Automatic annotation (TrEMBL):
InterPro entries: Glyco_trans_4-like_N. Keywords: Glycosyltransferase, Transferase. SUPFAM superfamilies: UDP-Glycosyltransferase/glycogen phosphorylase. This is D-inositol 3-phosphate glycosyltransferase. Residues 29-233 form the Glycosyltransferase subfamily 4-like N-terminal domain.
Amino acid sequence: MTKRRDRRRPRVLYLAFYFPPSRASGVYRARATANHLAKSGWDVTVCAAPLDFLYETIGSVDESLSETVDPGIRVERPSLNQYSWQQDLRDFSRLRRTFPLMARRLYHFGQNKVFPERYASWARSSVARALKLHARKRFDVVVATGNPHAAFGAAWLFHRLTGVPYVMDYRDSWTLDLFHDQPAYPKGHIAWAWEKRCLEKASAAVFVNDALRNWHAERYPEVADRMMVVPNGWDADVISDVFEPAGTPEPVQDDRRPLRFVYLGTLTAKQPVEEMAQAFKTARRHPELAEAELRIHGHLGFFRNSPQSLLIRLGLDEEARRAGAEDTGLRYCGPVAKTEVGRVYEDADVLLFLAGGGRYVTSGKIFEYMASGRPIVSVHAPDIAAREVLEGYPLWFTADSLDIDALAASMVAAGKAARDLTPDQRDAARRHAAAYTREAVLVPFEDRLRAIAGR
């Protein structure tokens, strides 16, 4: 019997609320992690968000992403109480329709006294589902990625009931507000107690950069030796087509056509949108950027009501058009399926890296940008954590501020570099990016996971 057990593949339960077809920003790390573990011989089961929540409630999906998930991965979709999202009376439960005040009190009691997150019901459902699966075939380890951080609570509870070790993947911080560099909750809030409880029992805690790891290590020194960094990376299975054969002529050298600047990714209200638009407008007055375009590819926000406010901030709304606003060169090109991003990079001369937040933010998109071997212009706060990976990238142009004129000067310099770019320069840029393939960054994580699971 012992021999049969040793021969079976190591089995992992992966608690990842945002998993394809979700198009949330964190889904790419979850997709890559699950695929890497499956490729490395693990039996992978994912507990993810229910599909009706993704399609009907938040309308945030990219179905092409599902095609990139290893077919051997089992995906479970435990239920979620959608109390706080429901706006239509017909969607209310019988309790809420009949006793609305009681239903509200019960909901807020759960938020204030049990677990401080509206995804808590999904965590409970995930534990219930996992216990049934575990009874049939034992899990060796649990990996929980947050947000939502109810995943951490679920991993803790499952460990308490079964003894299976777990790992917390801080894809996003829980108690640190990344956009204001300060605690997200007041002293004494139950989120602090939950984080401490979860970290104390975790076999490892994973962060996306050193700044985040250090912030948590200072607050939880007793578990600092179990903390590690697993940066984000770029997905070679998705953008490999960007790599032209060695010696391919650089397209922008062939003529004096207008340059194409590109932003690729979900644009959000947290990013310095106005600074980017104004700086490009200023840069476009330089002869080098005459008639240049800034093409914005991606979704505008994560939710259905997000696009209009962002179009206004970009000066691309219908009212601006009717008023005969000046052509600033900005073009909104719409969403791009993950499997089509290679084509966008091929058409780009210069990439704009736009990020909100400060010294704890890396952004997953920067790795993909570097892999393209194009000049990159930074549009973000100067002390952002993404500097850790951009340092040494030979085609990086940064103003070290959000000053409009300084940003515009960076854009002009990057445009000149794009026109003069040689194959050797592009190869050097790609060599820098090669250290950040998903496979490269996930190998140490998988090794750690095997050690924890004893497999």
